[in-house]
Design brief:
mainly alpha; 1 helix; 97% helix; rod-shaped
């Protein structure tokens, strides 16, 4: 092969390589953009999950306290009903 053939090959291959690198760069730029968006979304979701966990723990604690109050109230009502049953039985005799 002579030097003119090498120059022709370089003249053809050079622009083709530049075009291929441009295409690769275009898709890499899109991939980076999508990855950044995905990372931002995951960070927002992590924050939301932490807030939900905190709220769930808070509600669990407050529910336990409320159940104690309700249990005491029900126990008091149960005692009153038992007392009323005993009085009714005495009155029926």
């Amino acid at each position: 092969m002579n030097s003119e053939t090498y120059q022709f090959i370089l003249a053809v291959v050079g622009p083709i390589m530049v075009i291929l690198l441009g295409i690769i760069g275009f898709f890499l730029r899109q991939q980076v953009s999508v990855t950044k968006t995905l990372t931002d979304t995951v960070n927002v979701l992590n924050t939301s999950v932490e807030v939900l966990r905190t709220n769930h723990n808070h509600f669990s604690t407050s529910d336990i306290e409320r159940h104690k109050i309700i249990d005491r109230t029900l126990e008091a009502h149960s005692d009153k009903i038992s007392d009323h049953e005993k009085r009714i039985i005495k009155l029926e005799k």
